[in-house]
Amino acid sequence: MSLFLETLIGGLLAGTMYSLVAIGFVLIYKASGVFNFAQGSILLFSALLLVTLHEAGLPFVLSAALTMLVLIAGAVVIEHTVLRPLANRSPMTLFMATLGLSYVVEGTAQGLMGAQVHALDLGIEDVPIFFGDVLVSQFDLIAATTAGTLALVLALLFNRTRIGISLRAVADDTRAALSIGINLNRIWQIVWAVAGMVGLVAGVMWGARQGVQFSLSLVVLKALPVLIIGGFTSIGGAIVGGLIVGAAENLAETYIGPFIGGGITPWFPYVLAIAFLYVRPAGLFGERALERV
Amino acid sequence: MPRRARAGLAIPLLLLLAFVGVPLVGTEYWIGAILLPFLVLSLAGLGLNLLTGYAGQTSIGSGGFMAVGAFATFGFVVHGGVPLPLALLLAGLAAAGAGLVFGLPSDRIKGFYLMVSSLAAQFFFEWLFQKFPWFYNYGSSGTIALPRIAVFGLDVGSTLGRYYLTLTIVAGLTWFAANLMRSQTGRSFMAVRDMDTAAAVIGIPVYRAKLLAFAVSSFYLGIAGALWAFAYLGSASVQSFGISRSFQILFIIIIGGMGSIAGNFIGAAFISLLPLAIDHVAQALFAGHVDAGLLQNIEKAVFGVLIIWFLIKEPDGLARLFQTIGARLANWLRP
């Protein structure tokens, strides 16, 4: 029983790391209907930039602030050069454009700052904590708290501020939002910048765990099943989806893995997502779209 | 001259050039290291284009189906003792079966959601062919290689032999695909792509068309995977068919042109030649002082920029661009 609990809790906590990545997707998808494949490379870019600045001798807070400035500038540039010319094109075209964008960001990041693995020490010691006889990683607990805080901050941003309300208006009905004078381009810039910040947080957490390196940008692929399960348009869904994926993949590895050779975590979440889609084609919290001919 | 007549002349000329001209003037390096991968990538692009460009089902799992083709060919030859041409055909069918299975969710799942299914295929097959040593005949490194490449007793292991083998297969399959897309099947693919709800309303069996597209596409990808492993690389492992291969194939059809047969060849040529061009420019500019890793990253960034540029300026790809230029030229030449 304690093995089951340990696996479950470990999986749930690891799942919050997926949620962190998935939240960045949801933000952009809500505001502009773009499935932003480049989120993973932005995650890599921001973590790499922060580490490089930090290693160059700047204090951590200053490096983080500079990275955020670069992310904001990046959001404005992306909005101008990619999103604006592609406005009103099919979602598939936009998706492929972000695929191209991910290549640009990855190429730039690794071209400028090198491809070697950087260690990122947040000063959190990864000591196991015992609750009764269940073992929990301290690092995972902190990651989970971070994800929770981030979700709370974003929820406040969306529900209490002027920007958040206009953002929701854009997500709800773009044309109506335009007609009451909301500046769509500005909203896109803000959303991409906020998603960049979320990417930074996720990049730092993932980077501290496995080193800042290229494989960070592949985290994006794990976010896809999370989004499928949680729905593309709900931040709460992203969190629940991350928890489900994390727990399910950990449990599957422990209880199904040994029977079929193990190492099934790379593909298990996708199969889970397909199974979910069969039951609920729009995800747990997604909105079902009506189709007209 | 009417369009069909012009096109009718261009293709025999191209084939003549490929079958006779290239072996006469091409060097070993050009044929073995540039033309061969170009042909195989074109075939893979064609496979994905049938699914994504014609039937509108996005997939980023091409590498997985290519791996099925390669490992199945190896399996049929080594474990089954099947001669190579038959093994290729059977491997294509195995890949088609795999494609069919991962296409099953397409009746309920559309668009982005369907990409999950193709990603499942990609990672599942990577895992499968790595985890079970039976697939690579219990070798220590997990690589597969054929002892001898022969067709009907004729050894085609030389560079030129492998080139002819690949060229024949690619030409035949391209001809088949072009005709298939002009048939009722191809038309129903396009109807499904343009709007599947509307296609269902006018009586097209949508699910059957989608499944057929998955199967045919995977058949092509499977053959391409086998050729990539044995005709081009010589020996291959799962890493030869990773997710970056899937993206490469997707880029071929974006750059070349979705829903175009010629576009696959143009896109593949572009993707094979661009790294060479960047390499040459960098060598000329910095005289060999650029480090290979940096060059690779520059290449990557340039690729990304080109993808975005194409999507903005020429969403129908290079194939359409060439067509427009050709039409303008013809207009201009006309007295």
Walk me through this protein's architecture.
The complex is a heterodimer of chains A (293) and B (335). Chain A has a two-stranded antiparallel ribbon. Chain A starts with a helix and ends in a 14-residue tail after the last helix. Chain A contains eleven helices and two strands; from the N terminus they run H-H-H-H-E-E-H-H-H-H-H-H-H. Chain A has helices spanning 2-32, 39-55, 60-83, 91-113, 138-160, 162-172, 174-179, 184-210, 219-230, 235-255, 268-279, and strands at 128-131, 134-137. The mean pLDDT of chain A is 85. Chain A has a domain at 21-216. In chain A, helix 2 (39-55) packs antiparallel against helix 3 (60-83) and helix 2 (39-55) crosses helix 8 (184-210). Chain A is mainly alpha-helical. Chain B has 335 residues and is mostly helical. Chain B has a single domain, classed as ABC transporter involved in vitamin B12 uptake, BtuC (Orthogonal Bundle), CATH 1.10.3470. Helices cover 76% and strands 2% of the residues of chain B. Chain B has 13 helices and four strands. In chain B, the strands form two sheets. Chain B has a two-stranded antiparallel sheet with strand order 1-4. A two-stranded antiparallel sheet of chain B has the order 2-3. In chain B, strand 2 (150-151) and strand 3 (154-155) form a beta hairpin. The radius of gyration of chain B is 20 Å and the shape is globular. Classes of the chains: A mainly alpha (293), B mainly alpha (335). At the A-B interface, helix 4, helix 9 and helix 11 of A face helix 5, helix 8, helix 10 and helix 12 of B.
